[in-house]
Amino acid sequence: LAKTTQPISMDSYEGQEVNITCSHNNIATNDYITWYQQFPSQGPRFIIQGYKTKVTNEVASLFIPADRKSSTLSLPRVSLSDTAVYYCLVGGGNKLTFGTGTQLKVEL
Amino acid sequence: NAGVTQTPKFQVLKTGQSMTLQCAQDMNHEYMSWYRQDPGMGLRLIHYSVGAGITDQGEVPNGYNVSRSTTEDFPLRLLSAAPSQTSVYFCASSQPTRKAYNEQFFGPGTRLTVL
């Protein structure tokens, strides 16, 4: 399973764009990159998934460079309700490996 | 659809007691799994199942048993609870496809305290 490295915490203000970068140097050819969000006292929730280039949905964008050794989750115009822990996962299939994630704190 | 449901939401046990954490999903997902989350840490995989009748160990299986007799249910059993098993337990399910390879749906969790 590919190991991921992401910042422990980030701070932002409402209305700003937040970019969280994840490193995954030993990603395998068939691995997808997936991001989850977790609020306190809740289970993680799927945000976005991609394989290469750029993926966008109604919540976020995911940027993946050509070498796929890193990825960046972009949250446009964050609000207080985006305060959560964000996990980057690579590959796994039946065995997901969650790191400690990035604690994003959004303030007024 | 109710999605993934877990019962109970909270439980306090004494050391040595046994109990079963229930997990059910109504999405006809083949894959189900159990995770534990300790304070300040990510989720760690305990056991998983790729279909009815098939289970396997994850990263931290010791002290836990599972079975999968139906597609819908995946109970987690603690045979003799220990304080080290105090944690929040999450159940998840997914229908692995090439596109949604890792998209798992998580339940609300069970907060377990072992005294």
Q: How many helix segments of chain B?
A: 0
Q: Give start-end ranges of low-pLDDT stretches of chain A.
A: none
On the 0 to 100 scale, the average pLDDT of chain B is 92
Placed side by side, the strands forming the largest sheet of chain A appear as: 1-9-8-3-4
Distance between the termini of chain A: 38 Å
Note the beta-strand portion of chain A: over 45%
What structural class is derived from the secondary structure elements of chain B?
Answer: mainly beta
N- to C-terminal separation of chain B? 36 Å
Following the backbone from N to C, one meets helices and strands of chain B in this order, namely EEEEEEEEEEE
Attribute tags:
heterodimer; A: 108 residues; mainly beta; five-stranded mixed beta sheet; four-stranded antiparallel beta sheet; 9 strands; globular; B: 115 residues; seven-stranded mixed beta sheet; 11 strands
Strand and helix map with partners:
The complex is a heterodimer of chains A (108) and B (115).
Chain A: E1 9-13, E2 18-23, E3 33-38, E4 45-50, E5 53-56, E6 61-64, E7 70-75, E8 84-90, E9 102-107
Parallel strand pairs in A: 1-9
Antiparallel strand pairs in A: 2-7, 3-4, 3-8, 5-6, 6-7, 8-9
Chain B: E1 4-7, E2 10-13, E3 19-25, E4 31-37, E5 43-51, E6 54-57, E7 64-66, E8 76-78, E9 87-94, E10 105-106, E11 110-114
Parallel strand pairs in B: 2-11
Antiparallel strand pairs in B: 1-3, 3-8, 4-5, 4-9, 5-6, 7-8, 9-10, 9-11
Structure summarized in a few sentences:
The complex is a heterodimer of chains A (108) and B (115). By secondary structure, chain A is mostly beta strands.
Outline the structure in words.
The complex is a heterodimer of chains A (108) and B (115). By secondary structure, chain A is mainly β. Chain A contains no helices and nine strands. A five-stranded mixed sheet of chain A has the order 1-9-8-3-4, with no helix packed on it. In chain A, a hairpin with a 6-residue loop joins strand 3 and strand 4 (45-50). Chain A is globular. Chain B has 115 residues and is mainly beta. Helix content of chain B is 0%, strand content 49%. Chain B has strands spanning 4-7, 10-13, 19-25, 31-37, 43-51, 54-57, 64-66, 76-78, 87-94, 105-106, 110-114. In chain B, the strands form two sheets. In chain B, strands 2, 4, 5, 6, 9, 10 and 11 form a seven-stranded mixed sheet that branches. In chain B, strands 1-3-8-7 form a four-stranded antiparallel sheet, with no helix packed on it. Chain B is globular, with a radius of gyration of 13 Å. Chain B starts with a strand and ends with a strand. Chain A binds chain B through residues 32, 34, 41-46, 49, 87, 89, 91-101, and chain B through 4, 31, 33, 35, 40-45, 48, 50, 56, 58-59, 90, 92, 96, 100-109.
